[in-house]
Amino acid sequence: MGAAAIAAVSILIPKAPAVERPDVMFKIFQFPPNMIPRIDGDVHDWDIVPDDYAVGIDQLMDTEGGHGTNFDRKDLDVKVKVGWVKGESRLYFLYQAYDNYWDFTKPDLHNDIFEVVVDGDMSGGPLIDQYHRDIWTPEAVGAARANIDTRISRAEAEWSFHGAHAQNYHIFTPPAEGKDWAMAWGCAPYTKELPWANHAYNYNFKPGEAGNLVLEFFITPFDYRGCEGPQRAVPSVLEENKLIGLSWCVIDYDDVNSPKRSFWNLSHKQTFFGNASELVAFKLMPLEPKFRKPIEASWSYEVGDMSRRLVVFHDSSYGKVTSWHWTFGDGTESTEQNPVHAYSRAGEFSVILDVEGPDGKSRSNKVWEVAVK
Prior knowledge:
Elements: E1 26-30, E2 55-56, E3 61-62, E4 76-84, E5 91-99, E6 113-119, H1 138-141, H2 154-160, E7 167-172, E8 182-184, E9 198-202, E10 211-219, E11 222-224, E12 234-235, E13 243-253, E14 261-265, E15 280-284, E16 299-305, E17 310-315, E18 323-327, E19 333-334, E20 340-342, E21 347-357, E22 360-372
Parallel strand pairs: 1-4, 1-15
Antiparallel strand pairs: 2-4, 3-14, 4-5, 5-10, 6-7, 6-13, 7-8, 9-10, 11-12, 13-14, 13-15, 16-17, 17-20, 18-19, 18-21, 21-22
């Protein structure tokens, strides 16, 4: 088992609807806000990502081509790193692959592919029509259709839920001439375009040749991605230590004239591409310690009762903190960690939090951010 499975893969994942391989959990690297990777096909932005975040071909299983877990790096070798940035709803990917035969000449889905499925809130369940238990069509039920309700057609399914709560991206590696970089399965192709996605390739081989490919891209996971357009779309909230459902496969053709292919997938379930309950758990990691100060003051607030000008303050400081000192901007102070403060008058207030611990001191000062009326 590869090093990307978090430290000891014996960690059991809490019960959730969207977890396959419950004995493993993979990590998503948090990029510092001043080191966000540029989507340009240059791998150097990813040098800061430790090797134990990489997911290699040793974690994949061929569930279609007959190889099982018996991979041959002389035939195909892949490595994937995934990153995120606190405050964004984006997942960044670096896909590096060697193939002894790159297949990308046809205009259809016969193309070497990196297929990604993401479920940002781990809601689980089918995301394409053929796996939805409430949909029966004549072609699906065959001779038994007379005894089963025909509810909605596949075309209607496309416009009602296909890819709404979890998303599937067929990313062509690389695309044939004139072909778009990806197929976003469903009726919402806007999700593969800016500002929801971006991509860059780096390779120098021709169809049928061997060589190395770099694919760098980001996508936006959605809790709701409707066909009507992005105006009602709801991007997933990404937070430290949150688990998301994520998996991918590498579809590898070795003959432009043959439909035979290998289907190397991280889930180890052939049907993960249409059922978000068969994805794998990934954890959105905190910043690596080397990118943080030993102690950092940080806080947030919410208005608990505007009629009484009651504000609830939340300490979110990093490091070993042993003392807190709040200055609320109206002449009053507190040494509680998470104080509740009632302002006696309306206004905008500058609030300061000073924290201290064995590793030093830190201050967070927000000017005129707290407002009550």
